[in-house]
Amino acid sequence: MFRARSIQSSLSIKDKILSIDYILVISIFILGLISILAMYSTDGGELKYHTKSHILRFFVFFGMFLTLSFIQIRFWHSQSYLIYILFFILLLGVKYFGLTSSGSKRWLDLYFMNLQPSELMKIGLILFLAKYYHRTSIENLNRVRYLFLPVVVLIAPIILVATQPDLGTALLIAAGGLTVAWLAGVRVKFFAFSGLAFLALLPIAISFLKPYQKSRILTFLNPERDPLGAGYQIIQSKIAIGSGGLFGKGFLQGSQSYLDYLPEKHTDFIFTLFSEEFGFFGSLFILFLYAIIVWRIIKIGNVTRSNFGKLFCYGFGTAFFIYVVVNMMMVLGLLPIVGSPLPIMSYGGSSMMAIMLGLGIVMSCKVYKDTPVN
Amino acid sequence: MLSPSSGNTVIKSKLIGRRMFLLTAAKAIVTFGIIGRLVSLQINERSKYKTLSDKNRFREWKLAPERGVIRDFFDKEIASNQQVYQVHLIPENSKDIEKLFVRLKTILNITEKKLFYLRRVIAKQKPWEPIIVSDNITWSEFSRLNLFLHELEGVKPIVSVARMYPDNSSAHILGYVSQVSAKDLQTKKYLKDLHVPGMSIGKTGLERKLDEEIIGKIGFQRYEVNAYGKRIKQILINEGQAGKSFKTTLDFEVQKFTSELLKDKAAAVCVMDVYNGDIVSLVSSPTFEPNEFVHGLDKTYWNSLIKNEMKPLTNKTIAGLYPPGSTIKTLVALSALENGVIKPLDTFKCEGKIELYGEKFHCWEKDGHGIVNLRKGIQRSCDVYFYEIARKLGVDRLSETAKKFGLGKKVLNGFIEERAGVVPNTKWKKKFIGQNWYLGETLHSGIGQGYFQSTPLQLCLMTAQIANGGFEIKPRIIFDKKNNNLREYIKYKNENPNDPLPTDLLVSNFELKPLFKNQEHINLIKDAMFSSSNEPGGTSYRHRWENKKFTFAGKTGSSQIKRFTEAQREAEVKQESLPYKDRDHALFVAYAPYNDPKYAISVLVEHGGSGGKAAAPIAKKVIKKVLERHELRKRIDSLLGEQV
Question: Are B272 and B203 found together in one domain?
Fold first, then answer.
């Protein structure tokens, strides 16, 4: 205990700065710059509202990410439950004080920004479970008694988010939580059982779905079912990506987005816009950047000593990867349109904030990699 | 040093690492899946999606081409174009179509039926494709529409051009245009890439024959549009190409003159240049108003056309079939001469009728013509004389000659309404009626009755080919600078009457096709026709021109509708006292001037009675008119000749 303390205290500021993972920081920065260009294109080649506020958000939260990197890993560990509870309270707040927009209640008005607590909960749940499984001994791990709390902290926010309604985010929150649980060593049979239970409850769940959600799923199965209605987004997105070809139509030349054929081009379909303008090679480059980011996060998980750090890095890295591929598969027509932003690229403050928060904790795992958490 | 749980911690770390490794493998697979999808969309299918993207981006609005005009020989427009005011509507630009219709009804004269039709069209086509609410509104409606335009979203007032016929005297030969029907789209291949809503196409006559060329090439405007259909910018404009204009051989003045003469009659007149086959006039009566067809036909007008027993919609000159009657006698005589069946001076005695196997065959002259030779036979149109030579000639040799002179087949190209008629012979009867030929039928054929059916144009062609000395000509109605060498040949012959060169060699030099074996026979017929029109006793003697300039040589004819009963014959029933429907068709064919033939004419008056009384007077007037205009025509001809 004592020695660990001495290691930590022996870290000078210079050591800390040097121990930052620069490949990760640079990759994120490049991605941020690309996202600004893409946003500029969605605004039709003018410096308008979306671009301006995206630039502001990126730099503010990028700064936040760098700052959070120097917060001790021990702090994150000790405050995990509290952070989760804080985010959960915010989620509850949405239910009672939330802003309603296009039929769903997702946002809290914080005067300087509209906060979407469900995005933060993605991180909160991973943080909670990382700590929980860090503390749970390997013998107890698969005891039903020890499964009770994880199930509660998993289900409670998901129900709140799903009833906003925001099915996409609810599923992504669940994905992060389940990943951590599985990585920690929870037996596959529990996942299988809960999967079966989920399937059994599926008909009931479907009856709770809004008509537009049902239609989205049906449309995914057959996009030409309703080419002017729900299938429109998938079809137009595929046309935009496909017509980009190898090298793309050129910056600011994406006719699909420029002429408004592309829906939600700032948020969910930002990758489509980029892919239309920069083609196959541009898309590969973006994919490459995301791969580097995920690789660096996992790598940090490898070098960090504590299981809390490992679980968080692996959990967050995997969740990050899932956010990316779900979004991409969605715009490529491989998944139904569930409404999930592309990390860093998409317009949206809460998503940016949550991702940067997660990255900050990951970086803190790097800086304090040899520091035991308890 | 290590806490009790540190071993535990290491095991846990290993477990986490192992599971993370599995996850990483899964991630790689998913990543390759995404790359595969990108390859498939952006590389394999990129041309498909590029096309789809362009389809999104671009919209084309077609522009109807201006139809070519049709002119007469003197370059007067006989089918021209006029400015019309139209109302178009682009459904997607209107927020509420029903409200718009209500508003439009107060401004324009639109029926509920028309609105019903428009709604159906809107439901069928793309929302950005314009529909034509009304294709011909008056100026006052048009200005009122422009006044209220600000409250009529989606409505576009358009100034366009449409077909206009300055006169209806040539309605049949010109035909008419009207809206494209679903059937037209199926049957006419050239319309496939050409169809623009509201475009008119030729339905009959020249308009139909020339349609493919006269219609022009379609133009289009290509716009880049956004997802809401708003035009962002014009990318391309192709004005299209106005249709080709055509010059015909018709003389508008003669058309008008003739049409006026035929008013209130069911009749037809054809006039043809005997040398080059140029059709100078082709009039069918009664006529109709072709302008009525251009902007959608009025039902009551249509019904009045359909119910009229004079059949105003039929072009009688090429689609009306009539027995040629006595006009065929020229060919019967010619055939008999050519085949050596008779000599010109061979005589028969006409006692008003002959009997064959107990059947009586009457001459139109009850008391008979007495001793008749070929010249007198044609002059008086003696039926008995022709019964005798037809019997000797036989129907098969007669039909051969008749076909050579253009009967029994279509003589103009490309008119769907034209009919071929019938030149009967033994084979024909066996094939189409399934019976053997009777000798009595040969006798009927010899005076142009029985199965014989011909159009007035065929009779005109027949006469022209006799008049020009027996050479084949091709009737034509589209002006063509190219001429055959018939005129030069005649000139050469007149200048060198004693040229030693045999006829057939000359013919081959001038690329002509003679229809005779011995041209002397043709001259005999021409002379007999002269006597028929200009010598006392001739069937059209009363209607001759004394003036050498207009003197014509002709042949009358009347084709029987109903056989006269013996009782009627005895009672000497006059044609005029029969019911209209039972009266004979009156026919007259002629060429003029006699000493230097220039034009051939055929006149038909349905149920007009005898050819001499009903048809010859019309021919007389038309011949004068045509010959009076001959100098003018020749001048144009030589002018055009110089240009070549």
Answer: no
